[in-house]
C-alpha cells in the first residue's frame, strides 16, 4: 500500500492516537527513546544473520519494523514539540553543503 501522507499528517495522526487513549502521560522523552531503541533492535534482528544485501529478509516485516521506528520518532517529536519534517529538511540541507558531490562522490565520508 502506497501513501503520500506528509510527515506532518503522520505526526498529527500519531498525536491523535495517543490522545484518544490518554497515553501522553506515558510519552515522556526518556520512555519514548527507550521504546524507539527497542524497535530499532527488532529491525536490526531481522538483518542480524542476513546477507549484507538483506537478501532473504521479508520486506513486509522490515516495513512493519521501520514503521514502528518512525511512529516512535513521531511520538518523540510530538513530545518535544519539534517539527520533524523541518528538522529533516534542515539536516539534509546541511549535509548537502557539508558533503559536496565533487568532494565525496564514491567515497565513504569520515566523521569529523
Helix/strand layout:
Blueprint: H1 7-20, H2 29-47, H3 59-79, H4 84-98, H5 101-104
Keywords: Hydrolase
Organism: Arsenicicoccus cauae
GO biological process, one term: DNA protection
Characteristics of this structure?
112 residues, mainly alpha, Helix Hairpins, 5 helices, globular
Q: Could you please describe the fold and organization of this structure?
A:
- This is Nucleotide pyrophosphohydrolase.
- This protein is mostly helical and 112 residues long.
- It has a domain at 7-81: MazG-like (Helix Hairpins).
- It is 65% helix and 0% strand.
- It is built from five helices and no strands.
- Helix 1 (7-20) packs across helix 3 and helix 2 runs antiparallel to helix 3.
- The N and C termini lie far apart (40 Å).
Name of the CATH first level of the domain at 7-81: Mainly Alpha
The CATH homologous superfamily of the domain at 7-81 corresponds to MazG-like
H-E order = HHHHH
Mean pLDDT: 93
Largest sheet: none
Per DSSP, what share of the residues sits in E-state strands of 2 or more residues? Answer: under 5%
Q: Can you tell me the CATH topology of the domain at 7-81?
A: Helix Hairpins
In short:
By secondary structure, the protein is an all-alpha fold. The protein has helices at residues 7-20, 29-47, 59-79, 84-98, 101-104.
Amino acid at each position: 500500500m502506497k501513501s503520500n501522507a506528509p510527515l506532518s499528517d503522520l505526526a498529527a495522526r500519531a498525536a491523535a492516537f495517543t490522545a484518544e487513549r490518554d497515553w501522553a502521560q506515558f510519552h515522556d522523552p526518556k520512555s519514548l527513546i527507550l521504546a524507539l531503541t527497542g524497535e530499532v533492535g527488532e529491525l536490526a534482528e531481522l538483518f542480524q544473520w542476513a546477507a549484507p544485501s538483506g537478501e532473504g529478509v521479508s520486506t513486509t516485516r522490515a516495513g512493519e519494523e521501520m514503521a514502528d521506528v518512525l511512529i516512535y520518532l513521531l511520538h518523540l517529536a510530538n513530545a518535544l514539540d519539534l517539527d520533524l519534517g523541518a528538522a529533516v529538511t534542515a539536516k539534509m540541507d546541511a549535509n548537502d553543503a557539508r558533503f559536496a558531490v565533487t568532494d565525496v562522490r564514491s567515497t565513504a565520508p569520515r566523521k569529523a
